Amino acid sequence: LHGEAASVNDAAVSKEREELRDITDGYALHDIFNMDETGLYGKMPPNRTLATKRMSGRKEEKHRLSYAFTINADGSENLDPIVIGRWRRPRCFLSKDGKDYGYKYYWNLKSWMKADIFQEYIEDLDRKMRRQNRHILLLLDNFSGHKWDAERITNV
Q1: Tens digits of per-residue pLDDT, 131-141?
Q2: I need a labelling partner for 85 at 20 to 30 A (CA). Which of 15, 95, 111, 141 fits?
Q3: Is 2 inside a domain boundary?
């Protein structure tokens, strides 16, 4: 119930839906993927008790991990998630990189998706699809970090 009444042009929405259907009709459901990110504040304590009273005297922990999940339209294929943290080698990794443990782990000070991380992700996905001789459609939101070199990508 957010926004103003009639703030969306229904004709424009219908037109965009038709364009999206035209694009997706060229792909099987198992070849249509969606990727999206979410943040996890795993160390943040609850700000209310069961009695719904605010807790005083506690500083909020703002440590964040970002996760990017990719799944296809029929749910038959989940790609490995991307984890983006703040530190290159967190203490729990015992002086190793996340990639040494088999994770797609990246790091930056804000724990956010950036264009260089996304470029590496999209190139890895493209190599995987080339090995499988598949051409896929990857649906994304319009986040500014979702940029890639289109000349190097052939199967996504």
Answers
A1: 999 999 999 98
A2: 141
A3: no
